[in-house]
## 1
Amino acid sequence: MQTDEMEGSMESPNLEFEYGDTDSLTAEISELYSYTEEPEFGLNRDCFEEDFRSQVKEKKWTQLGVSEQKAYVMRLLDMLEVTNREKRLKVARAILYLAQGVFDECDTEVDVLHWSRHNVFLLYDMGTFTALLELLSMEIDNNQACSSAVRKPAISLADSTELRVLLSTMYLMVETIRVETEDDRPEWSAARETFRTELGSPLYNGEPLALMLFTMVNKFCSMNAPHFPMKKVLLLLWKTILFTLGGLEALQQMKVERRERQGLPPLPEDSIKVVRSMRAASPPASAMELIELQQQQKRGRRSRRPLVKQDSLDTYNERDPFKNDDARDEEEDSDDADSGIEGEVDPLDRDVIIQPPPPLPRSAPPPRDCPSPKACPGPPKSGRDPAPHP
């Protein structure tokens, strides 16, 4: 019994994970990027430094006051409205660098997270999210880029550069504002509630952000826009729905409030806490997986059979000469399925040589004077005379 339990624990070990809506902020941010986007971090920094040094000569971004930072962000938003696509992309990269926490001016990861949070709330306060949403809508409706991507045999990162920059900035803003921390300022808490309301209401062209992202998924699945960065789209869609509708804790709280309002007794237990304390388990296997498992077990039983001599196999195959090979295979499968003991060997498969029966002695021909054996008196004599008794 203990051996079976040990084997079961080895096959399905107890996994260590946290049952919740999301992981930590750093883990959720790392999910946004891929290894192929690593060179773009330096490109974002260069775009910011090039424009920032043209306006501020001696100070760094972290050394500026809030009023100076707001003035510079306002200048970036004005440059987002230029018609030149390359200039617009450089400004978008500079804004993304601010949302990433101006990592070149920080020494530790804690400093990067601190300035990223500070810059995100500053960007939202200046109306950056609405400006990015307008640019995203323009990129979605860019029929020229869609038709060019459809004609290409392979899609590269260069085909989705603008979309990736916009979606990355919007994802950082949504995820950073959504997460509450202990050191949040009062104005940040108020901005969080305002942002939640805005995401659930029509923001651009009478559509909420979630509906716009669902439209991008639909275009990508119908092969009308294969250049859409679908991973970033789905991540932003997931966090938008989670932010506007709430997670597991909000659902449990809503259940409790509705039951109190209707005069119902409280819930006997918190289902979320019960699930969190349960052991990790795999989902049930599908029908195809069960069939494959049975076939593997059947092949394993056949491989454990002892070797059989060729004479026994020939005798077994010649037992019914009117059966073809397919019928014999079906009969073997049915015999294996009916057998209740694993490894039991068929008696015909044992290491035994079946000896043919001994030949019968030939009878002597009848005497010439007898017309037939029936007319001869006594038993017929053999061709050789018996030896005389001593």
Note: Confidence is low (pLDDT under 50) at residues 1-10, 306-313, 336-354.
## 2
Amino acid sequence: MDIAFTGEAAQTPDAVAYQMKDYVQNFYLPWCGPNGVTNVHGYNRVVYENIYPFIDFHVYSGRSGQKIAFVVRPGGNPEDLQLLLNGQNQLSLDFWGNLKILLANKWIVLPQAVAYQVDGNNNVEMLNWTADYVPNNNTGVVGFTFDAYDSNRPLVLLIGAVAIDPPAFTPGVCYSTYFGGNGYDLITANTIDMGGNHYVTGNTYSSFTNFPGTVGNNIFMGYPSLFACRMDNMDHVVWKDFFGGSGAGQIAWGIDVRNGSDPKVYVGGWTACTNFYCLNGNPGNDYFDASGSGYNNGFIVRLDHDLGILEHATYFGNETVLIQDITIDPLGRLIVVGQTTGILPLHQVPLPAGAEQWGFGGDEDGFIAMFDLSDRVLWSTPFGGTFLDRATTVRARGNTIGVVGSSSSTTFPQALNGGGNQNSSTPAGFSDIMIIEFNQNGDEQWGTLFGGNDIEDPGYHGLDIDPVTGDIYIVGYTRSSNLPLLYTTDWHDATPPSGNANGFIAEFSSTRNRKWITYVSNSGTGGLDAVRVGQDRSVFIAGYAHAGFQTQPMGGLYESNAPLGDQDGVIMRFDTDHNYLWGTYFGGDTPGTIDKVYSIALRGTERLYTCGKTNSPNGPNDFFPLSDELIPGSWFNPNFQPGTDGFVAAFCIAPTAVGLPNFEATGGSSLLAWVDDGGWWSVMGGTPGLQPLFICDAAGRVVQHAQMRVPSDTPLRFNTASLSPGAYVLRIGERSAKVLVVQH
């Protein structure tokens, strides 16, 4: 469909772009040419000046979505406005006055235009009439109706989503945003580099993508397309890339960063596309295969850290070779794992001493492949028995490379006693957890099966290694009623699954003894997909659960003790003694909705970043725990697109807050505040108008923040009954002084 301006006074001006966004977009898809389309900038606003005499047309994006506006300057005649819609099948109005446009058996709706004027001080004055659409089905022309207005001031007709005021805030959530477009969007993996940059990857079925938002639509025909995005340590988007093929399924499962003076970002997954965008970064000196078999080949992509420029992209393997996860080891080498029907690329350089070279077991095997710093295959091998085996996730710390997957084979040829009591070569049930440990040369140090009398599967990112002790943590799903639980005074859940899957946690010591094994989900259904051990050895775990999951409140952090929808994400925190410090559901409250955390990453000891998918909207009648951190330029999208969106949510886990605003008084004013027995706060002394409000506990942690409209002659009142009794620090606006409030 084409929209043009028509009538005797209509003109065709060129677009003028304003406020260029500071991030770039790169496109590496089959139709983008041999070098892709790179360094594409978005703009906050595009203006067509004088579409009619003294009438301008604005296209821009706000936090509540895309908008268009007609600005009638003094001297302009609003009766000139006529839109010619070519290519539509039908025009009509709904009950609310919205314009409905039928296009290819789908209705496009333009909201009714809101009319307002702007005075010399840039103040907005709403008018008591709306500019109704006047559609003509025979000609395809749409006009507008008008009423009285001051012709000496600009008249604005705004078409678009209503602004959200105040900004979204959920207590205990530092930052939370939707991340998606108008189709199915999924974030499958995330990671954080040494500089605090946060990276996410996944796939999107959206026909246009507004994550992070740009004026206009970016059209992708991959269905799905793959994406990667870098956000800096203030959550500003630096770049986003779209890559892959078209015509078949594909998904990215792993992302990691080779740190150093010239950091590189690696993404791995699988694709069934025969036209995957391939680029040989260093011909003859790296691994490169541009011949896709159309059988779910693995893929590896390397991106420049600074601008996201694609440096290398290749298929990996022929026939069925699925890359399920990737990691970068301490030496900077890329390691990929997954499952294969037996055809793996061979090593291109001499094998490391002791590197395992096992044969193909049968059906499908797990595999591991390591690359040198030039991205040549250094070592690869399949592993597993005669039936279905797969490697799901991989981590590397110190001299240890750990691989976890699942096996339904009757024997496990790679069983090897690692020195402890977890040493099994035969499955206990239909499918067991498979664990293999290698040293940095690829020499096996330990191999075992672990499970109960039914099915176990590890989470997508359900493996990590303690940075101090070398203990291995594994989380996942189980249907077994006799998992070999192990606990003394540790927190535990001894309730076995009752027909559905439960989550589980298993810790193995550095000597490969069983150390801590527990179910997670109590009487409900759930599973765990990710585990990460922090620098301080705190253990963070995430996944999903229905009703029955045991929660644990922790001061200053988000708490939901029941699923708000049909299925919510879940997040847990333990200390080194297995004390349960924090546990919560995380999701929306619309009946029947499903939310899930796929991956987590830690920024030092300050923040936990979670990501995944949600089909929970947020609006007047629906809730999803969004939080705008109010950092200028940080990416925040409160708009849920029907279907499924990705999400990113961060939790401030440090004992003291990081980057708090300066609480010293700057204007000499002070606050007078008191709290009644019902938890209602009354505050006098704030600067009138819309102001940021912060409440911190005695340790300096922000426990609540919001935008509040401060009245000029009456107390500001708000309720914080959820806060525990104690001392708090309250700040409203930049000019406010310190005030200590004790809640009784």
Note: The mean pLDDT is 87.
